[in-house]
Design goal:
Helix content is 30%, strand content 28%. The protein has a single domain, classed as Rossmann fold (3-Layer(aba) Sandwich), CATH 3.40.50.880. The strands form two sheets. It has a nine-stranded mixed sheet with strand order 2-1-3-4-11-10-9-6-7, with helices on both faces. By secondary structure, it is of the alpha/beta class. GO terms for molecular function: transferase activity. One of its GO terms (cellular component) is cytosol. Keywords: Glutamine amidotransferase, Transferase. This is Glutamine amidotransferase.
Amino acid sequence: MLIGILQAGHLAQEVQAGHGDYVRLYSELLAGHGLRFQGWNVVDMEFPISIDAADGWLISGSRHGAYEDLPFIPRLETFIREAHAAEKPMIGICFGHQLIAKALGGRVEKFDGGWMVGRKDYMLDGMSYALNAWHQDQVLKAPAGARVIGSAPGCKIAALAYGDTILTMQPHPEFPNSVLTELLDHRAKGIVPVDRQNAARAMLDQPNDNARIGQKLARFFVAHQQVDHG
């Protein structure tokens, strides 16, 4: 099964030097289930020829806001609506979570509670997961027909399900603690309040549940497997 990874942004060069960009991180997160991966840099206006160019889609995080006036955003929203109408399996992470919600009628804004950074406890489908967060924007109104399946203190709409074909979440299960360390070292200064940086650093030695979520997301794709591109 071919999974198309739509990169809606690029990780900082300091992160890429040791960990690669989003395509590598998601490929590693979802490894071990017979899935194959191909990336498109949609943030740079590199789009698939159609929604059928892959069997399933994953929309990455981004430094951009879903509400920004950037040329790739309306085109990606159209892609999302077409994939949804065709019942193509799709996963959205952080920005992907937000843009899918916006494309399908929800509302995304900067959260007045500010940044969520570092290890947070999420309830997803009735189970607890410790996952890394890195965001200020949030989905504040879910689209009609979407089910809220995840939440965390300070993030009421942390995960959404649209029927059984779209699954989205606000945290970053593709970010191991080593990536979060790089982000704190190279991206947080002047952006994330110091007290929140310090709180995130204090949790860097704690384990997270990335692997558990990776299994869940991979199984979501495998359950929708139909045709593999050769």
